Amino acid sequence: LGVIGINVVGFVVVAIGSLVAGSAALAANTLDFAADAATYALSLWAIGKSVQVRSGAAFVKSASLAAMAVGILGFAFWRAVSGSQPEGTAISGLGLFGAGANLVAALLLVRFREGDANVRSVWLCTRNDLIQCLAVAATGVAVSLTGSRWPDLLVGVVLAAVFLRSAWQIAVQAQAERSAAAPERKLVTHSRETSAPV
User: Cα 26–171–66 angle (5° rounding)?
Assistant: First the structure.
């Protein structure tokens, strides 16, 4: 629950900052905080349930990451066509804020990094967030030094690629766990049928 709270606060703060700064990288950060708060709640709900339910939750998170990636790419393209230079100082400051928030979340979740697809997806999301926020902070510096919006747009595209890769990893693991559980379910069903009274 603490990790969910961290992401809700992060979403509010970075959402306001991204509107002020007009940054594609911060927009990616905002979407990520929002999605993480929702998917962490889903993960918490799925813990202890069947493989089918847990893998289904992982598939939902995979799809949300892929959808975020598409949204970020669309925003980056729009900024490239019509946008002006974002505010570098605001980008760096909010990037460091997000990095601090996600570092705390990562420390809380590090013990779950080798769990099933549902649990591991939480760790992957948090790890990605920490990397993303550090990249956002560096982007602000690059924008200030170059006087250009292109570093911000480039980082937005790179972060979208990171989201897509994580979405793929989660989906592959979830499918493998579901496939591995299928023979066990068939065996249990067969045992019940053969042991039933005639």
Answer: 30
DSSP string, 44-85: HHHTTS-HHHHHHHHHHHHHHHHHHHHHHHHHHHHHHHH---
Higher pLDDT, 92 or 192: 92
The predicted-structure confidence for 135-160, as pLDDT tens digits, reads as follows 888 988 998 898 888 888 888 888 78
170, 133, 149: which is closest to 75 by C-alpha?
Answer: 149
Contacts of 66 (CB under 8 A, 6+ apart): 163, 164, 167
pTM for this predicted structure: 0.65
Reading the block at residue 189, the tokens are 């069903």
What pLDDT does residue 41 have? 79
